[in-house]
C-alpha cells in the first residue's frame, strides 16, 4: 500500500520504526565533525576521471 492511501486511512506500519541506536548516536554527538587540531590538509576531489 502506498503512503498516500495509508495516510488517508490512518494506517500505521508497525515494522517501520525509528532505529533507537541511530537516535542515541545523534543524541550523544558520537559522530560529529571535530576541529582540525593537527592542521592536516584535506583536499577535496574535484572529479573522478
Overview of the structural elements:
- With 49 residues, this protein is mainly alpha-helical.
- The chain has a domain at 1-28.
- The chain contains two helices and no strands.
- It has helices at residues 3-8, 20-27.
- The longest helix is centred in the middle third of the chain and has 8 residues, at 20-27.
- It is elongated and about 55 Å long.
- The termini are far apart.
- The model has no long low-confidence stretch (mean pLDDT 79).
Helix content class: 25-40%
Oligomer: single chain
- Please work out how many helical segments DSSP would assign: 2
Rg is 21 Å
Distance between the termini: 42 Å
Query: What's the main sheet like?
Result: none
Question: Summed up, what is this model?
Answer:
The protein has 49 residues and is mostly helical.
List the SSEs and their pairings.
Elements: H1 3-8, H2 20-27
Task: Sum up the structure in keywords.
about 50 residues, mainly alpha, 2 helices, about 30% helix
